[in-house]
């Protein structure tokens, strides 16, 4: 697939050539994670039918699950009304999307009043990350 495909031009890429991406569990609509894609990552995602992101820290493509086996099978791709955010509806292999071994990366909830608020982990670890990443 050419990364010059016309549909890619509809996306409003930021100054770094990236677009924010939300991965959501198909069926339950659980928000699993947030990541970034460049043109190549989005084109590869469409080509493979599995989520491929752009790792800003490693400065390379990152096929979700390449180390953990927790791939995301893409069932649907949507573009928001401003055409600057992508939503992936995915089936999450192993029910683990987060590198902490949890279902979702959004496992911390703010609790307490404004003066004494703190982040509290409210979702369980499904699998010890040390057993996932070797």
Give the gist of this structure.
This protein has three helices and eight strands, in the order αββαββββββα. With 134 residues, it is mostly beta strands.
Q: What does it look like?
A:
- The chain has 134 residues and is mostly beta strands.
- It has a single domain (6-124), classed as Roll (Ubiquitin-like (UB roll)).
- The chain has three helices and eight strands, in the order H-E-E-H-E-E-E-E-E-E-H.
- The protein has helices spanning 6-9, 39-48, 129-132; strands spanning 19-25, 31-37, 52-55, 60-63, 72-79, 86-92, 108-111, 118-121.
- The strands form three sheets. Strands 2-1-6-5 form a four-stranded mixed sheet, covered by helices on one side. A two-stranded antiparallel ribbon has the order 3-4. It has a two-stranded antiparallel sheet with strand order 7-8.
- The protein is globular and about 50 Å long.
Could you name the CATH homologous superfamily? Phosphoribosyl-AMP cyclohydrolase
Per the CATH scheme, the topology name is Ubiquitin-like (UB roll)
Give me the number of helical elements.
3
Strand tally? 8
| Quaternary structure annotation | single chain
Strand order of the largest sheet: 2-1-6-5
Look at the helices and sheets and give the structural class.
Answer: mainly beta
Strand content: 25-35%
